[in-house]
Amino acid sequence: MNPTRGYDELRHVWGPVAPVSIHPGVTAWLVLGHQAALEVIWNEHPFSSDARCWNAVTDGRLPADAPLLAMLGWRPAVSRLSMDAHRRHRQAVTGVLEQIDLRRLRLVVQLRADGLIDHWAQRTSADLVTEYSRPLIWAVFAHLLGFSPASVPALEALVIAVTDTADGAAEADAELLEAVRRLLQTRIAAPGPDLASWMAHATTLTETEIAHNLVQLLLFGARSTVDWIGNALRLLLSDRHVNALVATGRITPADVLERTLMDDPPVPNIPGRWATKDLMLAGHPVRAGDLLIPCLAAANTDPAIQGGGGSARTGSRAHLAWGTGAHGCPAKDLARLIAETAVDAALRRLPEPRPAHSGSARATQQSMWAGGPAELPVDFAQATPAHRAEVPHGLPAVMLVPERTRTVPVQEGEAPQRWGWWDSLTGW
Description:
CATH class: Mainly Alpha
Number of strands: 10
Number of helices: 15
CATH architecture: Orthogonal Bundle
Order of helices and strands: HEEHEHHHHEHHHHHHHEEEEHHEE
Shape: globular
Number of domains: 1
Helix content: 40-55%
Radius of gyration: 22 Å
Strand content: 5-15%
């Protein structure tokens, strides 16, 4: 079913908020309206990011091994906490992200993008997802976190399994967390110019908290950036008007990326807010502990904010892709830089790209938490040379090496297993 048509049908029956089934015997509120979504995202007092109050869990209706808990379950990380705990984690994460040299990061993306294009440029055809956006972004994220290039295929497979929330998602989440823990142990002993080292040596978070925050960066950063680039390139391939505007310089790749956040967001739904008390939302009675899912894809197409510009519209800042309020995305500037550099490199190097076959620019991965083309095969004229200066072997560092100022503390009684907290939930 066409998602937009489905949202319209739900809106017609239920209005801005609709009850939906997400597991046998478990329902949630899908927040379709822009104003209602903004209210849920903005107000952390009645709408918490902490899943420990989820009534489907406390009532025993949702088993602890349910695949969707890999994305919706609680973890000690910035996006899954509220109030003072959230602010403590956010301060630590944003402080570390500020250590990234943006000029060097842009260079890293450019070098990797040019290297990928050089690899298949002479073919005059390529898949801009499987041969460009995916390997590009995963190489960049591995470099940022401190993973080796050899670890990328396994990391990507685990992230996809978790964000798809199919069978095996909980096991994939545990494996991903263990991989991050191993990296963290290495960086505690020998810090490098990467985020894992800075989180370990320049924050007061515990080892478990750092590991979960790095997992969140992979889950919500890497795949969504791949999909964001794919959606922007798909728009350029499928919309001649937008393509012409870019070709004549009337809009920039940044404008195209902004429009995709409105029309085709790479994160269709925000993974959960929970009502902290009984309340009314858009005329619907919401109980304390109910799950609400702000649907960005639906909120962005809410007739209340649509201007009727059709294909001529180049973008709108009314989208909620970055969240807002206390839980606004702390890495949005980094994500923009990476995505803009990647799209700009593709446009600069690939003259006259066009879909390799009819419909190839429209195939979309099906996931509640991720939305982007699974493939994007294109044909193009011979690629433009990179015209870059010689650079040292490998990608340059984007951070300094942090000083080894402390050993990461481990809180007494921390459970080593991912879902250990469920056992003591009733005592929270």
